[in-house]
Write a structure and sequence with these properties.
The protein is an alpha/beta fold. It is built from 14 helices and twelve strands. The chain has a seven-stranded parallel beta sheet, sandwiched between helices. Strands 7-9-11 form a three-stranded mixed beta sheet. A two-stranded parallel sheet has the order 8-12.
Length: 345
């Protein structure tokens, strides 16, 4: 039995759907904040051997009880507040969930692990899902590898960096068998429409303005959610305990290039004119502390675990556009009353 926290969020739900399809027994946990939705894991919840608990990872006793009751052999922590724009306005929530929540979950996992016999202890894994943003902004060339120093620039990145350090400390100090993955910008189906790609897709479909921060030349390495999850699976299967693995899609593009491509694909799918769609692009004031470029060196993951992404960005983006066009009911369900579709992330 595997525990998956943040199971109803974007990447967590993809991982959950993949594991359930393989017949994995799962203990799913999610607080069901605005970005978590049970419809994203509808199929797994109708599968034998899959349970769900609406809980906060900061509830240490509840997490320990679940680990014990389900005799979990693995815990995968996707649970996090993840939107940079929101972290600027509400950094306390990010510190509470991403830092203190992770510490509580680690403490529960450690208590559980210490109860196991020697064989079960050797098999147990705690995998923590992090982000490339912990490294800060790289220059016009080069890429971050696993030895790069942490230099977070946003409250979100700082909260994830702190949680990463606690994960490392629990391994170094207490021996808890941990693994950490740092993923680049991830996109695909079921992503809450406050992030760049789904926000632009939905605005383009509705012919609303497409707000692009600053000059739009911020560079990101785009990673399809299926590739992100396949990398996590490989790390769980064969990663050396205590190690960190960078996960990237090898698709560096500026935000402006991504938005322009979305305009073209939405136009293609809806029979509209691509040129008029691009006229919806509106440059707005840049976000405070906006990192200029992220780039990930994934040599370690490729060489040690024989992993590489399989989705080309153009194909992945086109299929993502089509998914949002085909799933209007899901989109309507995840729109909370306060959602203004104002930020990019």
């Amino acid at each position: 039995m595997w525990m998956v926290t943040g199971a109803a969020g974007f990447i967590g739900s993809c991982f959950t759907r993949r594991q359930a399809a393989q017949g994995r027994k799962l203990c799913l946990v999610d607080k069901l904040t605005y970005a978590g939705n049970l419809s994203s894991i509808d199929q797994p919840l109708r599968t034998d051997g899959v349970s769900f608990s609406q809980l906060d990872i900061g509830d240490q006793s509840a997490m320990l009880d679940l680990l014990q009751r389900h005799a979990c052999t693995t815990a995968v922590n996707f649970a996090a507040e993840s939107h940079v724009d929101r972290s600027i306005d509400a950094l306390g929530v990010f510190a509470q969930t991403n830092v203190l929540g992770t510490v509580s979950l680690l403490t529960a996992a450690l208590a559980y692990w210490r109860e196991l016999d020697a064989v079960a202890q050797r098999k147990f894994r705690f995998l923590h899902v992090s982000t490339d943003e912990v490294y800060g902004s790289t220059g016009a060339s080069g890429a971050f590898d696993e030895s790069s120093g942490y230099a977070p620039n946003s409250p979100y990145a700082a909260s994830k960096a702190a949680s990463d350090h606690f994960v490392r400390a629990f391994y170094r100090t207490y021996g808890l068998p941990v693994l950490t993955t740092c993923g680049s910008n991830t996109y695909g189906a079921y992503q809450f429409p406050e992030k760049l790609i789904p926000l632009m897709i939905l605005n383009a479909i509705e012919q609303r303005p497409l707000p692009v921060y600053g000059d739009g030349l911020q560079v990101r390495d785009w990673l399809h959610v299926d590739d992100h999850c396949s990398a996590i699976e490989r790390v769980l299967e064969s990663g050396t305990v205590g190690d960190v693995f960078n996960v990237g899609g090898g698709s560096e593009l500026t935000n402006l290039q991504v938005v322009q491509a979305i305009c073209d694909y939405v136009a293609e799918a809806t029979g509209r004119d691509s040129g008029s769609m691009r006229e919806l692009i509106t440059h707005v004031a840049d976000r405070p502390g906006h990192d200029r470029r992220y780039a990930m060196d994934t040599t370690k993951l490729r060489a040690e675990l024989d992993w590489s992404p399989t989705n080309q960005f153009a194909d992945g983006l086109r299929s993502t556009v089509q998914w949002y066009l085909d799933n209007e009911a899901w989109v309507a369900e995840v729109r909370p009353a306060a959602f203004r579709r104002a930020g990019l992330g």
